[in-house]
Structures are given as C-alpha cells and as structure tokens.
Amino acid sequence: MNEAPLGLDIYLLPTYFVDSDHPDVIAYAKSIVGEEADPLRQAILLYKAVRDDFKYNPYNINLNHFQLKASTLLNRSSKQGYCTEKSCLYNAVLRVVGIPSRFHFFNVRNHIGVEKYYELLQTDVLAYHACSEVFLNGKWVKATPAFNKELCMKTGVEVLEFDGVNDSIFQEYAPEGGVFMEYLADHGTCHDVPHDMFVKALHDHYPHFFLERQDFCMTLDK
User: Fold this and answer.
1) Prediction pTM value
2) How far is CA 148 from the centre of its chain?
3) Beta bridge partners of 109
4) Which end of the chain has the lower number of beta carbons within 10 A, N or C?
C-alpha cells in the first residue's frame, strides 16, 4: 500500500460509486498489480487492465445509481461499459493500492465509436464525457481507460497508452490528419461521480430522449 500524500485523503477514500472497499474490486486490483510495488508501474498496469478487460459501449447508459458503481461494472456479465463507468472502476482500483484518483469531465464532439449518437440524440456533442486523473510523482496526470484496444484497432485509431508521466486523453486527430475530437467544455474534477450534475447535463443536451423514456436508462443499442 502506498502512503497517502498530505491533503489528498479524499481522493483515496471509498465512495458510493468508487467502492474501492468492495472485496471484488480489491481482489481485482491485487490480481493486476501482483508483486509490483512502484506506484507508477501499478497505475500503468491497472490502466491497461481496465482499458482492455472491459469493452467501451456508449450505447447503453443506465443512470440508476447502482449501475454506476465500480463493482457493478467489474461484475457485469457483458464486460462492457461507457467512459464514466470505466473511469469509476479505474479510480477504484487505484485507490485500492493507495494511489489518489479523481474524475475529470468534459463535453466533446466527434467521438470514437458513436455512429448512432447523432441520429438518436440529434447532436454530435457528448456531454459529461469522463476521464481519470491520477496523482503520481507530485502531480495530477490524466488517463482515459475508456477505449479498449480492440475498438481502436477496428476503427483505425491509435490506442491510448498511459505512461504515468504525460496526460493520456482523447485522441484529437484522426490518423489521416483530420480533426477527430474537439473539446467544447471543461466541467472540472470531482472525487466521486457527481450524479445529479451528470443527469442534469444529459437532460439539458438530450431533452427529447428523456421525454421518450422515463426510466433514466439511455438504452441506445437497438
């Protein structure tokens, strides 16, 4: 277990969503890091595991509180989740080994693997897209475990690696040189999923969808 830096305790504590005290989350984290004791190497190992063990699926967004828990994604039979869920699990396993972690949320345009979004949501803006921030060597570093290697290879996009030193965020340009992703708004950082703000952002951006569905479940995978 790594020693917590002073003043960062809140980013190490378990929360309702980042349930790093769940026995399955603890077991998963320990199975990934093994005997590795270096925090930077641990963060990289955990990043690759969450990135590739769980496929990115932005077409089944269930806003039920329980569905957003890190342990829920870990035990989900489909092994699929969207960005917030995958960042939640990554943050949880980081906290298991004593590495401070938090969320960073953005609005973005032109996202990987969301061909159906424009038709269904009537916009190409993705609200409250999440990445993680990891505290390593005295600074916060961004990491995006959302896009699994298989998806990146299928869509011809470079796999996002994480070296624990440099920010690893959204691919900004397509391989052929065109703009791949555009940052529209920065919602800042949180130690836990800001569920009410997240739901409100989705209501604000996709009001028609919530008029059609009253169960807070954006099941787009039809």
Assistant:
1) 0.89
2) 11
3) 125, 182
4) C
Q: How much is the pLDDT for 98?
A: 96
Q: Supply the DSSP string of 46-100, one letter for each residue.
A: HHHHHHHHSEE-TTEEE--GGGGSHHHHHH-TT-EE-HHHHHHHHHHHHHHTT--
| Residue type at 12 in one-letter notation | L
Retrieve residue 12's tokens.
Answer: 């190490």
Mean pLDDT of 194-219: 76
Residue 220 pLDDT more than 50?
no
Residue in the structure block whose two tokens are 């269930």 = 62
| Residue 133 structure tokens | 């921030």
Strands 139-143 and 217-219, sheet pairing: unpaired
Q: Which residue has the tokens 């309702």?
A: 16
Q: How far apart are CA 222 and CA 46, in angstroms?
A: 32
pLDDT digit string, tens, across residues 131-145 = 999 999 999 999 999
Domains and CATH numbers, the chain: 9-219 (3.10.620)
Q: Tokens 């690696």 identify what position? A: 161
User: What are the beta bridge partners of residue 131?
Assistant: 104
Phi, psi of 190, rounded to the nearest 5 degrees: -145, 150
